[in-house]
Amino acid sequence: MSSSTLIKNIQIRVERTLIQGPPIDLSTIKCKQYLRRHINNKTRLVVLCVDLVGSTKLTLSLTSQELISIINIFSTEMSMLISGYGGYVLKYVGDAVIGIFPADFDSQKACINSIMCAKNMLNIINQVINPVFSNKLPMIEIKIGIDLGESMIVLYGKNVEIAHIDIIGSSISIASKITALAKPNQILISENIFDTIVEIPKDISLKKLDTENRNWAYKNIKTNKILNVYVLN
Length: 233
Prior knowledge:
Blueprint: H1 3-20, H2 29-36, E1 42-52, H3 55-61, H4 64-84, E2 88-93, E3 96-102, H5 107-133, E4 142-156, E5 164-168, H6 170-181, E6 186-190, H7 191-196, E7 206-208, E8 229-232
Parallel strand pairs: 4-6
Antiparallel strand pairs: 1-3, 1-4, 2-3, 4-5, 6-8, 7-8
Helix pairs in contact: 1-4, 1-5, 4-5
């Protein structure tokens, strides 16, 4: 399928969602199925956080239905991109979607997939969603942070079918903090991602972020030095 056809299909889906509501039921079932295979063990994961910018302002200025439409469209399209690049939606946290990309067997592929996913998230917002919103709803912006690391899979209880399951580790924490550091419509990746990519594809351009005056004091656990952050251009 050509990129123009794909964009057109997404545009149609977004327009229908505005009128008819979400086309699918968003769920984390597939992620839980994956996590259950690693309960009480550590696994290597890329964690991607995508955050809707200015959601508090949107809450105060929009009707409930308008806000729900924006959240549904944002969450649906971001989730489908995560799945399309081999990831799983870990959780929905209000105005944010958190995805994971298994990296035990091929960390470089997981890193590149997460970066390409993030790039396309931004493209879909700017090329599809905002044009559809024009004259109907406010334009939206997103921030994205990505990190790689080992995570412990924790089952909160005994019954794997009903007990809550989640991940604990530096990667989800750092990804979240990197997202907070990002500017609107900016993608930031950690040094852990940067160092894992042996050969950076031609369509990926990375520049080291100056964090000196950005209240950034998080350290690389391997070097005990300040963890570098890179901007995806």
